């Protein structure tokens, strides 16, 4: 191929290459010829060669050797070479390369050129790849061009000024007077550039924002002119006059009217006019309406105007375009908390979107439907959500189940309805629920004593129907173990009477124990339930003993340990079996989620000590001596047991309050025996600030041992994340901090965080504790500190 072939022939030769190797050969030969011609001093085809090199660069091949040629061509007096040189600079150069500094002077000269098209080339290049240094050097020239009488140049200069403001924030003040004067222009291109520049300036500086709030009447007049103007062939798009400028003005009005009543009042009439007069049958009109809705919802607008905006979003939900439906639900999700009643009017349309084929639309519809659930519509909404749960995609099932649980807990009309709803979810999507679902449901069941018979019958039938849903099987096994005597009586007013024999119940539990679908945790629940039935039935105790003995040699260590302990109860401590396996007491809600974890201790800085005032008083806790004699159950060990998790006892480990002695941990291993409830420890508030409250209660474990329970709650309107507590005590005191129950605090006291601190004070020094509270609220990190000088009950 000849080195002087035109660009079109080179493109044709590259495209006709049959292999990648052949294409590389063509490009390498051409690049070699271009290098040779670049080295010639008298080269009349420089623009021709650089154009070919830019095409090579577009294909992804190296073209950096043409950078200096771009610099030389920019300095050329010929427009044809200057045009290709600037194009090459925008493609081959960036602000990180030293060669870009060489064109600064050429750009400055071209900005003062008499030809507007040469000025335009310089403005486009500076706006594309200008570095911070170039922007500082050339900013006065751009400000001068903003005052030019040429509309073509002013439009380009405004967009170049936007780039300069983004690169160097301090230069924004330079363009404020010029930007304001551009609003009086009639040319739409200049107005568009001016609005973009003013928007950028207002977003960067609060002081500039206040100054431009005075321009709201001017912007309103410009917008009114666009709305009521007749047909203009230069600006009309699908029957809407210059929708691009309208959208930009609406975005600027949204910024200017945010948190300012005067500016918002000045634009209310305009927004109502745009919302009612814009054609919503075309995509262009929908774009303008969507920006109008966002502006109405973001400023301090009138209540009637906000309802109009919500109704527009409701019409978007009926649109055939899925993108429009998606952005409508995204916008409704943001305002459902502030305009709940207005959004409720479109509940039926939102629920219908749950049947959409698009996964993104389904997800948004699910989030919005869950946000619309209230006490007045809980039954109808839950019916629709349960229907959706049965057919929703697997990736949405966990989110749907979690949302249904939260809504049922907040707005349940009755305990029975609450239990039925959770059981329905477990039956439909039991494998996708969160881990805390099982203990939460068990806690709900234990607190509803009048429904124990109904619940155990319903769970027993569910267990016979399907054992693949592990959370459902775990709850069923727990209830059968606790309330098996009610199941065997067969007398239940809430449901049809079903005669169940002892053999039927044991057969069902054996199926769970032997099923390949059962997890080790589920088998632990089933084995514990089988053991508890030994005190609730009379004719099949020997069968239970044989079932338990089989698992004494199980390959699963946790299950084997449980079986060995139960065998010890049968053989050595049979006289204590009834007391150990008696029915669980009512579970307190604040004991949920207390788990043992790694210990941590971190010193803190000094702070002003604050005396803690005791708010609640109660009798000091009684010693838990009645359970200490059980410590020698498995061999008389006098060493305190280390806390740990155990299969099958997870229900009792997670659902019972923190043990009051070392014997309490062992009792968890024995299947949930609970000591006699003690008098509640006195509680004091040690921290109360910004809606966050931290309370402290103490229990004396021994002469030197003390367990401190810290409980945090959030009464604000915003969720709190990353909540951590750190504690420090005198050096002679040993401190162990257990893992917290959670790391977030929902708004309005939706849930509490609980953390145990174990103290050992062998030297009997004056006990003090310093606590540091850290959390994140609305994107801001908050840290505070409090000192506790006295402990309640000591």
From TrEMBL:
<feature type="region of interest" description="Disordered">
    <location>
        <begin position="638"/>
        <end position="659"/>
    </location>
</feature>
<feature type="compositionally biased region" description="Polar residues">
    <location>
        <begin position="639"/>
        <end position="659"/>
    </location>
</feature>
<dbReference type="InterPro" id="IPR008153">
    <property type="entry name" value="GAE_dom"/>
</dbReference>
<keyword id="KW-0472">Membrane</keyword>
<dbReference type="InterPro" id="IPR002553">
    <property type="entry name" value="Clathrin/coatomer_adapt-like_N"/>
</dbReference>
<dbReference type="InterPro" id="IPR008152">
    <property type="entry name" value="Clathrin_a/b/g-adaptin_app_Ig"/>
</dbReference>
<dbReference type="Pfam" id="PF01602">
    <property type="entry name" value="Adaptin_N"/>
</dbReference>
<keyword id="KW-0333">Golgi apparatus</keyword>
<dbReference type="GO" id="GO:0030121">
    <property type="term" value="C:AP-1 adaptor complex"/>
</dbReference>
<keyword id="KW-0653">Protein transport</keyword>
<keyword id="KW-0968">Cytoplasmic vesicle</keyword>
<dbReference type="GO" id="GO:0016192">
    <property type="term" value="P:vesicle-mediated transport"/>
</dbReference>
<dbReference type="InterPro" id="IPR011989">
    <property type="entry name" value="ARM-like"/>
</dbReference>
<dbReference type="InterPro" id="IPR017107">
    <property type="entry name" value="AP1_complex_gsu"/>
</dbReference>
<dbReference type="GO" id="GO:0006886">
    <property type="term" value="P:intracellular protein transport"/>
</dbReference>
<feature type="domain" description="GAE">
    <location>
        <begin position="679"/>
        <end position="792"/>
    </location>
</feature>
<dbReference type="Pfam" id="PF02883">
    <property type="entry name" value="Alpha_adaptinC2"/>
</dbReference>
<feature type="region of interest" description="Disordered">
    <location>
        <begin position="591"/>
        <end position="622"/>
    </location>
</feature>
<dbReference type="InterPro" id="IPR050840">
    <property type="entry name" value="Adaptor_Complx_Large_Subunit"/>
</dbReference>
<comment type="similarity">
    <text>Belongs to the adaptor complexes large subunit family.</text>
</comment>
<dbReference type="InterPro" id="IPR016024">
    <property type="entry name" value="ARM-type_fold"/>
</dbReference>
<dbReference type="InterPro" id="IPR013041">
    <property type="entry name" value="Clathrin_app_Ig-like_sf"/>
</dbReference>
<protein>
    <recommendedName>
        <fullName>AP-1 complex subunit gamma</fullName>
    </recommendedName>
</protein>
<keyword id="KW-0813">Transport</keyword>
């Amino acid at each position: 191929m000849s080195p002087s072939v035109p660009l079109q022939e080179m493109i044709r030769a590259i495209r006709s290459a049959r292999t990648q190797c052949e294409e590389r050969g063509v490009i390498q030969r051409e690049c070699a010829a271009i290098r040779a011609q670049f080295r010639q001093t008298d080269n009349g085809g420089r623009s021709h060669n650089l154009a070919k090199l830019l095409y090579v660069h577009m294909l992804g091949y190296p073209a950096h050797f043409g950078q200096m040629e771009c610099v030389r061509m920019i300095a050329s007096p010929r427009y044809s070479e200057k045009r290709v040189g600037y194009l090459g600079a925008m493609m081959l150069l960036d602000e990180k390369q030293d060669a870009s500094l060489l064109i600064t002077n050429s750009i400055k000269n071209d900005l003062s050129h008499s030809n507007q098209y040469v000025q335009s080339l310089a403005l486009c290049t500076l706006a594309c790849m200008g570095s911070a240094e170039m922007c500082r050097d050339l900013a006065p020239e751009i400000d001068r061009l903003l005052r030019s009488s040429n509309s073509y140049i002013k439009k380009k200069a405004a967009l170049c000024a936007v780039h300069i403001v983004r690169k160097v924030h301090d230069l924004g003040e330079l363009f404020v007077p010029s930007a304001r004067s551009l609003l009086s222009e009639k040319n739409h291109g200049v107005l568009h550039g001016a609005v973009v520049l003013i928007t950028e300036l207002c977003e960067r500086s609060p002081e500039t924002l206040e100054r431009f709030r005075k321009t709201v009447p001017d912007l309103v007049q410009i917008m009114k002119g666009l709305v009521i103007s007749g047909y203009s062939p230069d600006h009309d798009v699908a029957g809407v006059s210059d929708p691009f400028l309208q959208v930009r003005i609406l975005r600027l009005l949204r910024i200017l009217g945010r948190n300012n009543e005067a500016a918002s009042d000045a634009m209310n009439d305009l927004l109502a006019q745009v919302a009612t007069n814009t054609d919503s049958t075309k995509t262009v009109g929908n774009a303008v309406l969507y920006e109008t809705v966002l502006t109405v919802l973001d400023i301090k607008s009138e209540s009637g105007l906000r309802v109009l905006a919500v109704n527009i979003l409701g019409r978007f939900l009926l649109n055939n375009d899925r993108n429009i439906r998606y952005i409508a639900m995204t916008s409704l999700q943001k305002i459902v908390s502030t305009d709940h009643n207005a959004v409720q009017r479109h509940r039926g349309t939102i629920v219908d979107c749950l049947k959409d084929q698009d996964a993104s639309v389904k997800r948004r519809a699910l989030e919005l439907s869950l946000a619309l659930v209230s006490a007045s519509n809980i039954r109808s909404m839950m019916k629709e959500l349960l229907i959706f749960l049965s057919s929703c995609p697997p990736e949405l099932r966990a989110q749907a189940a979690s949302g249904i649980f939260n809504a049922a807990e907040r707005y349940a009309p009755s305990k029975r309805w609450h239990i039925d709803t959770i059981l329905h979810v477990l039956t439909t999507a039991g494998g996708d629920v969160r881990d805390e679902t099982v203990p939460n449901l068990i806690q709900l069941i234990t607190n509803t004593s009048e429904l124990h018979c109904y619940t155990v019958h319903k769970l027993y039938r569910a267990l016979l129907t399907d054992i693949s849903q592990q959370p459902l099987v775990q709850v069923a096994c727990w209830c059968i173990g606790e309330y098996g005597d009610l199941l065997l009586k067969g007398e239940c007013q809430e449901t049809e009477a079903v005669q169940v024999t002892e053999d039927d119940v044991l057969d069902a539990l054996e199926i769970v124990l032997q099923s390949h679908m059962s997890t080790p945790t589920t088998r632990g629940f089933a084995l514990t339930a089988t053991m508890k039935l030994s005190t609730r039935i009379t004719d099949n105790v020997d069968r239970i003993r044989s079932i338990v003995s089989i698992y004494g040699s199980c390959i699963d260590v946790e299950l084997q340990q449980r079986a060995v302990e139960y065998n010890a109860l049968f053989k050595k401590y049979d006289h204590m079996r009834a007391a150990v396996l008696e029915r669980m007491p009512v579970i307190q809600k604040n004991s949920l989620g207390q788990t043992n974890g790694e210990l941590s201790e971190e010193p803190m800085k000094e702070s002003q000590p604050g005396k803690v005032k005791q708010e609640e008083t109660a009798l000091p806790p009684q010693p838990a001596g009645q359970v200490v004699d059980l410590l020698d159950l498995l061999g008389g060990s006098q060493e305190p047991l280390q806390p740990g998790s155990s299969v099958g006892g997870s229900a009792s480990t997670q659902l019972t309050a923190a043990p009051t002695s070392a014997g309490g941990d062992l009792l968890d291993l024995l299947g949930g025996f609970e000591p006699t409830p003690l008098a509640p420890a006195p509680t004091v508030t040690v921290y109360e600030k910004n809606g966050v409250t931290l309370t402290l209660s103490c229990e004396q474990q021994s002469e030197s041992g003390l367990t401190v329970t810290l409980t945090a709650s959030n009464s604000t309107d915003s969720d709190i994340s990353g909540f951590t507590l750190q504690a420090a005590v005198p050096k002679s005191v040993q401190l162990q901090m257990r893992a917290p129950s959670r790391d977030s605090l929902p708004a309005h006291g939706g849930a509490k965080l609980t953390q145990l601190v174990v103290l050992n004070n062998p030297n009997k020094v004056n006990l003090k504790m310093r606590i540091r509270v850290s959390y994140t609220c609305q994107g801001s990190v908050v840290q505070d500190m409090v000192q506790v000088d006295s402990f309640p009950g000591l």
